[in-house]
Amino acid sequence: MRELKTYEGSPAAEAGVGKDPVNEPMIRHWCEAMGDANPAYSGPDAVAPPTMLQAWTMGGLSGHGGAGRSAAYDALFGLLDGAGFTSVVATDCEQEYLRPLRPGDLITFDAVIESVSAQKTTKLGTGHFVTTRMDVRANGEPAGTHRFRILKYAPARSRPRGAPSGKQPPARPRPVINRDNAGFWAGVERGQLLVQRCADCRTLRFPWLPGCNGCGSPRWDTVEASGDGTVFSYVVMHHPPFPAFDPPYAVGLVELAEGVRMISNVVGVPADEVRIGMPVRVEYRQVEKDLVLPVFRAVPGSVD
Description:
By secondary structure, this protein is mainly β. 12% of the residues lie in helices and 38% in strands.
């Protein structure tokens, strides 16, 4: 631990330069991917979404050449690898915004190893949290700070698949039910997929919210969705393993016939056969005695 602490304050990256100036095409792609139509991000006085702060510093597949990770950062990882902490997972990040970024701004940055934690034990395994702080500048002026935290760990030993554990199978994680979404989960219990509808502008919305993000009205009612949809996007989860889930499994962003999108499991086909555009239909799965969840089953004949 004493040796690890000597790396705190050492540079993680120096004299980094963004591969491209802040530019409208990247802003447009980001907004389309995020579904963000805020007018502040387009037009002659456009600014970049603040959460793009790190995007302008990324080196892509080819990296940043000589301005990549520092020797100190590589040495720190080598020390952790040598101690058996060979796996890595990103845990969280924090961003602070000091000024808007506008098309044409030239981005430069430096990063420092801010902290290395004492040894911690998590469900993934035992290791150390490493936090780096990146200071981002636009045309030489401070523009923001990005803190990024990872866990370098030795994976916990897992029980071989199929081996008896002598314990009850782990419970499925419970959805967070509150005043804003209780009506949705009550509908699921009845076998209904309910979508909120603004009582003023009639805009449909999902997930459930206390007010309309179109006109701001707090008044709403519900419509029952048909349950038909298509896979808009998806990921196949292999790792890390979670109790009560058996990887690989597909998590899909499903676009309902009514136009709203929701996230759930895609079932009925092997995970590696899920495709964008695949037609699916909701079904209600009793995963535990007191827990019903909506999942989406591939429509028969939709897979070649």
